[in-house]
Design a protein that fits this description.
Layout (H helix, E strand, L loop, with lengths): L2 H26 L4 H13 L1 H11 L6 H15 L18 H14 L4 E2 L2 E6 L1 H13 L4 E6 L8 H13 L3 E7 L4 H4 L3 H8 L2 E5 L20 E4 L3 E5 L18 E2 L1 E6 L2 H17 L23 E7 L7 H12 L3 E5 L3 E2 L2 H12 L3 E7 L5 H8 L2 H7 L2 E5 L3 E2 L3 E4 L3 E5 L3 E2 H6 L2 E7 L1 H16 L1 E3 L2 H5 L3 H11 L6
Parallel strand pairs: 3-4, 4-5, 8-15, 11-13, 12-18, 13-14
Antiparallel strand pairs: 1-10, 2-9, 3-6, 6-7, 7-9, 10-19, 11-16, 14-20, 16-17, 17-19
Helix pairs in contact: 1-2, 1-3, 2-3, 4-10, 5-11, 6-7, 7-9, 11-12, 13-18
């Protein structure tokens, strides 16, 4: 046998071993069929590279220590809600049938009960958001807790750092949890030393490295955005701690466009609980006593703003929690469903739900940015347009920058608002946080924001869309095959 033939047989044997190994792992871990088949196809075409990629990111291991902390801490944290007075809870009887089903689903997936809202403000625009955060930090007296995916120095974001430093120096307990990958430049910068010197605790969540990559999946990220002040005010939504005037200008997609919700009342307890669980998982530290005034919520105030469900999601929980909420919202819509998302790479179930809603007469509107900072995501996203448009879904491409707001409104009565994108990564892999607010006034405010985005967009016409070049269509469809892995 020649050397060439020996090498050929050796490569064929290696290819077979790698292919069978990944195939058996896919079946053994019961991956979603689309995801599993995508991995098998990748290893079949690129055996060595595909196998190495599967080892790094193919499954969802969090690491035994982190997972144990999460499992052991989850039930005691949920016990905090038993201490809340009766007036802190939302009234399920006041909701519509569809809203009640959505609220029960949120509680079933997270264990967090429906809670009364005292005040909810929808804040749009980076300048307004950052100035509001600074004002609340300046008023902090006891505690400031933050979780963000990205913190980048520059512009008005520096004002947040200055306000946090001042708070720490006047004795306010300040804790910050930042994603190790998303905030990598911040951890390498000069600002972090000043904050730590002032007394701010800053920890990196889900750190990565060549050794850790052998045991812990490297691409599971803490994608939450959350700020809690004195246990009485909380912010969540799409915006990172960045100033879009200076953030990622080199990407060529324009300024990022975001919105946040500022909330007061009992849901702050739930958001604080999410922070404490994440802090425990990363540091192993048990929480200090809560700073929120429980007694203050014993009586319902004269004016309340509906109720809210707080739904954290991630690979540590039951799984696919946000996906379940999106599906329930789409199938429960009777008149209107409006979605804004920067990254639209859904799975078959979400696509079918949107198409089915449109086909049964619901006005379904999808607003996405015309340009995003990932070429592969852009190609994959557009491959879904044909089927959605043909089903009656209205698609608008935002022209005013990278629309980063993640929102979903149902029938003008219910709002899903938070950090999740309509892509498989957010729906199944990343740690996200979502507020489900049951209130027409709040939904009207979000709906007005969505309408403004729509006015700054261009509608996609089905006939014109289908007239695009065959090469472009082929590339989009080709990239879509990898959508379960994006």
């Amino acid at each position: 046998m020649t050397n060439a033939a020996t090498l050929e047989y050796a490569f064929l044997g290696l290819h077979t071993v790698l292919f069978l190994t990944v195939s058996l792992r896919v079946v053994g871990h019961n991956l979603a069929p689309s995801t599993g088949l995508a991995w098998i196809l990748l290893v079949a075409l690129f055996p060595v590279g595909g196998f190495l990629l599967y080892v790094l990111v193919g499954e969802r291991p969090l690491g035994r220590l982190r997972l144990r902390r999460m499992v052991e801490g989850h039930r005691p944290f949920l016990a905090r809600f038993a201490a809340l007075p009766a007036g802190a809870f939302g009234d399920l009887a006041a909701l519509t049938v569809e809203q009640g089903q959505l609220a029960r689903l949120g509680t079933a997936t997270s264990g967090i009960p429906l809670l009364r809202c005292d005040r909810v403000d929808v804040i749009a625009g980076a300048d307004t958001i950052l100035k509001a955060i600074v004002a609340d930090l300046n008023g902090a007296r006891r505690a400031c807790d933050l979780i963000f995916y990205i913190w980048q120095d520059g512009g008005l974001a520096d004002g947040v750092a200055d306000a946090l430093e001042r708070a720490a120096r006047r004795g306010v307990r300040c804790r910050v949890l930042l994603d190790a990958v998303g905030s990598r430049p911040f951890f390498r910068g000069e600002r972090i030393a000043r904050l730590r010197a002032a007394g701010v605790r800053i920890e990196a969540a889900l750190p990565v490295g060549p050794i850790r990559a052998l045991f812990v999946r490297a691409d599971l990220r803490l994608h939450r955005k959350l700020l809690i002040v004195d246990g009485r005010i909380a912010y969540t939504g799409s915006m990172n701690l960045v100033d879009p005037h200076v953030f990622r200008r080199e990407a060529g997609v324009g300024e990022w466009v975001d919105a946040m919700i500022r909330i007061e009342g009992p849901p702050v307890v739930a958001l604080e609980t999410v922070f404490l669980e994440d802090w425990l998982a990363e540091t192993g530290e048990l929480p200090t006593p809560p700073v929120h005034p429980l007694a203050a919520w014993a009586e319902v105030p004269a004016v309340t703003v509906g109720a809210a469900a707080v739904v954290p999601s991630g690979p540590d929980l039951v799984g696919d929690d946000i996906r379940r909420l999106v599906l329930a919202a789409a199938y429960g819509a009777t008149r209107e469903l409006v979605v804004t998302t920067p990254y639209f790479v859904p799975d078959e179930a979400v696509t079918t739900a949107l198409e089915s809603a449109a086909m049964r007469g619901v006005t379904v509107t999808l607003i996405v940015p015309e340009q995003v900072d990932s070429r592969l995501v852009r190609y994959a996203s557009r491959s879904f347009f044909d089927g959605l448009l043909a089903s009656g879904v209205r698609i608008h491409q935002f022209q005013g920058g990278l629309l980063h707001t993640k929102s979903l409104t149902v029938d003008g009565e219910t709002t899903l608002f938070g950090t999740f994108n309509l892509d498989i990564r957010s729906l199944r892999l990343n740690f996200e946080i979502t507020l489900v607010v049951f209130d027409p006034a709040v939904t009207a405010a979000v709906r007005a924001l969505q309408a403004d985005y729509e006015r700054r967009s261009v509608a996609v016409d089905l006939i014109a869309w289908r007239a695009r070049s065959p090469v472009r269509r082929f590339v989009e469809n080709l990239v879509r095959l990898a959508s379960p892995l994006l």
